[in-house]
Structures are given as structure tokens and as C-alpha cells.
Design brief:
Elements (H helix, E strand, L loop, with lengths): L1 H21 L1 H4 L3 E5 L8 E7 L5 E2 L5 E5 L2 E8 L8 E2 L1 E8 L3 E11 L8 E12 L13 H27 L1
Parallel strand pairs: 5-8
Antiparallel strand pairs: 1-2, 2-7, 3-6, 4-5, 8-9
């Protein structure tokens, strides 16, 4: 029995060491940068997550769900981190969103083998907004008739102005 307990303790220590190494992204503050920085309704929004390290374990999102104005990105971590997941950042596509105020929630979930518990922790909660698309009304245009009258008025004013100047110079 003592031998079994010692083996379980060693196994627990190995799992803890591996989990600590692979959950590097979860142990430091996570920062998000949205692309585009000021999204407009209908544009695809991407959240770039980083924790300031040169490389951390950033697996792909297990799920990206939207419940009203809350968008949850769930990231599942396993016992090991494959080399393709080691990166200074990872982009997670949130999708094309309508204009509204949103809250991004990033969940870090660990999938531990039994008898160790699996759990999820909130890594990040940050609000962001998607702006309504702006429509720019064109400048009002003059009709052809009004443009012709304006041009005739300008020509008449120019002729009246330049006539006295010519006579004044001749004297």
C-alpha cells in the first residue's frame, strides 16, 4: 500500500510539473488586442492573445460561443504542449458581429487525467464595441440649369470687375 501511495505521489508530481510548464499562458496576465482596432458592423473581429513571453502554449480554441453580448473563447490545455502551439501570441477569430457592446471572456480549461480534477478558470474579461456602419451622404448637386446660371453670373461679375481695372491702367 505504501508503495502504491508513493507511486501516486510521484505521478501527481510529474503531472503538476507538466501542467505548470504547459500552462505558461495561464500563469501570466493575458493581454488582448483586437483586429481591426475599431471594428464596424459586419467586419470579422479577431482577438490576439499574448502574455508577454517570447513563447507560450496557445492551443486552438475548443469553442467560441456567443450568448447575447458575451463572447466566450474556451481554450483546453492537455498534459503536453505540441511545438506548433508554442508561440508569442495566438489569434482567435470571433466572427462578424453586429453593432453592439460586447464582453470577451477567455476561459482556460485543464483536462487532467483521473483522479485529478478538470477545471476551468477565467483568464481574461474585457469589454469591446463594434460600431455601426457609417453611411456618408453625398454632397448636394446643382441641376444643370442652376450650374449654367451660376457660371453666367460668375462670368458677368468677372467682366464687370476687370473692365474698370483695364481703363484705370490706360490713363
Amino acid at each position: 500500500m505504501a508503495r502504491l501511495n508513493a507511486s501516486m505521489i510521484r505521478l501527481a508530481a510529474v503531472v503538476c510539473v507538466l501542467s505548470a510548464a504547459t500552462l505558461g499562458a495561464a500563469t501570466r496576465p493575458v493581454v488582448v488586442q483586437f483586429s481591426p482596432a475599431l471594428p464596424v458592423a459586419g467586419q470579422t473581429v479577431t482577438a490576439r492573445l499574448t502574455n508577454g513571453q517570447s513563447k507560450a502554449c496557445w492551443p486552438p480554441a475548443t469553442s467560441v460561443t456567443r450568448d447575447g453580448s458575451e463572447i466566450t473563447v474556451r481554450i483546453d490545455y492537455d498534459d503536453a504542449c505540441p511545438s506548433q502551439y508554442l508561440s508569442p501570441f495566438r489569434d482567435y477569430v470571433l466572427g462578424a458581429l453586429p453593432a453592439d457592446n460586447y464582453k470577451l471572456i477567455v476561459m482556460s480549461c485543464s483536462n487532467n487525467p483521473p483522479p485529478f480534477p478538470s477545471e476551468c478558470n477565467v483568464l481574461l474579461q474585457v469589454p469591446f464595441a463594434v460600431l455601426a456602419a457609417r453611411t456618408i451622404d453625398p454632397a448636394p448637386m446643382l441641376s444643370s440649369w442652376a450650374t449654367l446660371m451660376l457660371l453666367a453670373g460668375l462670368l458677368a461679375a468677372t467682366a464687370l470687375y476687370t473692365r474698370p481695372v483695364r481703363y484705370h491702367r490706360q490713363k
